[in-house]
TrEMBL record, chain A:
The chain crosses the membrane at residues 23-49, 81-106, 118-136, 167-190, 217-236, 242-264, 276-297. CDD domains: TM_PBP2. GO terms for cellular component: plasma membrane. It is found in: Cell membrane. This is Multiple sugar transport system permease protein. The lineage of its organism: Bacteria, Bacillati, Actinomycetota, Actinomycetes, Glycomycetales.
TrEMBL record, chain B:
SUPFAM superfamilies: MetI-like. It comes from the Bacteria. This is Multiple sugar transport system permease protein. It holds the Pfam family BPD_transp_1. Its main location: membrane. The lineage of its organism: Bacteria, Bacillati, Actinomycetota, Actinomycetes, Glycomycetales. It comes from Glycomyces harbinensis. InterPro entries: MetI-like, MetI-like_sf. The keyword Aminoacyl-tRNA synthetase does not apply. It is found in: Cell membrane. Residues 1-21 are annotated as: Disordered. Belongs to the binding-protein-dependent transport system permease family. Coiled coil: none annotated.
């Protein structure tokens, strides 16, 4: 049962026994407070602020749609959107393909499963840290480890991080490096496929490739869908790695300027809080649109047993 | 898998078959492991190189892509530890305070909310639950500006409160979801037996559900530890005063200050900053893997 299944099941369920509103109120009180004071309240406030000019010192001044009109001509925003979309649309499919590939390699009771799984999972715990971002900065620097490796192969390297052509690809590599957590989810999904399906396919003379495309893949589509939704949402919000690798500038030449980083610069660098709020809502709408498209498209490729 | 077909064949043929088929199987396993080990090496090499480099003199680091140490240079650790206006341990204590607060908050508030969602019927439960799941997907950026304004009104900027108090309000929906899933797996008969004995919901929660959901609580504590320890964005926004800096902020300040001159010390402190995460992973990975497999972590 994943979060995506829960949302699907919403329609066909209704309450059965009598409500226990009083007890529920007390148990959920902290959560309700958090929902309204820390989540929904600030959301509404940021929606309002996105229609204002606000620098924290003077009270917000209502300026209508000016912030959104400004987006249309904001060159840095356009390049930050291009950078963010490239990052998400390139790194997530590669990351998931790698996660799925390795999960399948590890599935059939391979020796040393626990070892491999741990090693592959570890980077997804470390990947978001400042320390790893610092490491990346040096590994892909002009005299970094990556160029040393290329040197062995007789290929001349370059300053991967200082070159605007390649800076983003180093961040994509870093996101791909954290494929361990979707891989663990794939492994759990693979284990739930009943062995009798494979036996039946084998009796029918299906080749290993055929068994993969006709049994494994269809039964795994709900898990692929879940990972896809989750990793896209996650990747759109990436911040730390770009911030550290570029010293907070999003450079060189805005080539690593994620929208989250641009939003931070506007809001907390220039105290342009109104515009930053508008950018935050743009990000929310983009993420919501991607998620909605994902759910809509899932009708055509995700296989549900029921 | 094709065994079912060959098993009926003549014994002689089967024996011959086995000999020829066994070696391709072994060869295949060999290549599988070769491929996996290649992946392991590629993935871990940079991290291992960082550890090894932190034990090398500065002028040697970028001339040695290998992992073999000629002699142990611990000076980087000493230099890095004392390179800030506070010893590095000071920032680790700050991080530890934030982490501890976040863990306690998440354990209390998320388990209460989860009990409510998993065991109590109330008006609009399905919809509240759906809202909870949707907040799981909400980018922090959408709420950060007004939240910052709110917390600065309270005078909470440059304190740990903005990082801890929300955890006491169950704002980490991921853990609520994880615990709901876990509680649903606890047999309801246990609750009903307790109710017949006259226990109310607080008692069932404390005496029956909480003790049985220790694995889910452990998963929550471990994930909270790692995510809070690594968290950069909200700490960057709320903790400006160097006296309040946590490990990620101190590390970032250090890197920017010495602009890539003292890599030995930088790597040494990077290793120190990752050590707690690594240890928690080492001892808690059972809970991590189970948690992520049931709900799908980040």
């Amino acid at each position: 049962m994943t979060a995506t299944d829960e949302l699907r099941g919403l329609r066909d369920s209704r309450a059965k026994s009598k409500p226990q509103n009083k007890a529920a109120f007390w148990f959920l009180l902290p959560w309700f407070l958090g929902l309204f004071a820390v989540t929904l309240g600030p959301m509404a406030a940021s929606l309002y602020l996105s229609f204002t000019k606000y620098n924290l010192l003077q009270p917000p001044e209502f300026i209508g749609f000016a912030n959104f009109e400004r987006m249309l001509t904001d060159e840095r925003l356009h390049s930050s959107l291009a950078v963010t979309f490239t990052y998400v649309l390139v790194s997530v499919p590669i990351q998931l393909a790698l996660a799925l590939g390795l999960a399948i390699l590890l599935d059939r009771g391979i020796r040393g499963l626990a070892f491999y799984r741990s090693v592959f999972y570890l980077p997804s715990l470390l990947g978001a840290s400042v320390a790893i971002a610092v490491l990346w900065r040096t590994v892909f620097g002009t005299d970094g480890l990556f160029n040393e490796g290329l040197g062995f192969l007789g290929i001349e390297g370059r300053g991967w991080i200082s070159d605007p052509e390649t800076a983003l690809s180093t961040l994509i590599t870093l996101n791909v490096w954290t494929f361990g957590s979707p891989m663990v989810i794939f492994l759990a999904g693979l284990r739930q496929i009943p062995a009798m399906y494979y036996e039946a396919a084998a009796v029918d003379g299906a080749s290993p490739l055929r068994r993969f495309t006709s049994v494994t893949l269809p039964l795994l589509t709900p898990i692929i869908f879940f990972n896809l939704v989750l990793q896209i949402i996650h990747a759109f919000q990436s911040f730390t790695q770009a911030f550290i690798v570029s010293s907070g500038t999003g450079g060189p030449v805005d080539s690593t300027l994620f929208i989250s980083l641009y939003l931070y610069q506007r809001g907390f660098g220039n105290f342009d809080m109104g515009y930053a709020s508008a950018l935050a809502w743009l990000l929310l709408v983009i993420i919501a649109a991607f998620t909605a498209i994902n759910f809509w498209a899932s009708k055509y490729w995700v296989y549900y047993d029921d | 898998m094709t065994d079912t077909l060959t098993r009926t064949a003549a014994p002689q043929r089967a024996a011959a078959d086995r000999r020829t088929r066994r070696s391709p199987g072994r060869v295949r396993a060999f290549f599988k492991h070769l491929l996996l080990i290649a992946c392991v090496v590629v993935m871990l090499y940079p991290a291992l190189w960082m550890v090894v480099s932190s034990l090398r003199p500065n002028d040697e680091i970028f001339r040695s892509p290998g992992l073999v140490l000629t002699d142990l240079e611990t000076g980087n650790y000493e230099a890095g530890w004392n390179a800030f206006e506070h010893p590095f341990g000071f920032f680790m204590v700050n991080s530890a305070i934030v982490v501890l607060g976040a863990i306690v908050g998440n354990l209390i508030a998320c388990s209460m909310a989860a009990y409510g969602f998993a065991r109590l019927e109330f008006t609009g439960r399905r919809w509240w639950f759906a809202i909870m799941l949707l907040t799981l997907m909400l980018p922090v950026h959408v709420i950060i500006v007004p939240q910052y304004v709110l917390f600065s009104e309270f005078g909470w900027v440059n304190t740990f409160l903005p990082l801890i108090v929300p955890k006491f309000l169950a704002t980490d929906a991921f853990f609520v979801f994880l615990m709901v899933q876990f509680i649903r797996g606890i047999p309801k008969e246990l609750d009903e037996a307790a109710r017949i004995d006259g226990a109310g919901h607080p008692r069932i929660y404390f005496r029956i559900v909480l003790p049985l959901m220790v694995p889910a609580l452990a998963t929550t504590a471990i994930f909270t530890f790692i995510w809070t320890w690594n968290d950069f964005f909200s700490q960057l926004i709320y903790l400006i005063d160097p006296d309040m800096h946590t490990v990620p902020l101190a590390l970032r300040a250090f890197v920017d200050q010495q602009a890539g001159t003292n890599w030995g010390a930088t790597f040494a402190m990077s290793v120190v900053s990752l050590l707690p995460v690594f240890l928690v992973f080492l001892f808690g990975q059972r809970y991590l893997l189970r948690g992520i497999a049931t709900t799908g972590g980040k």
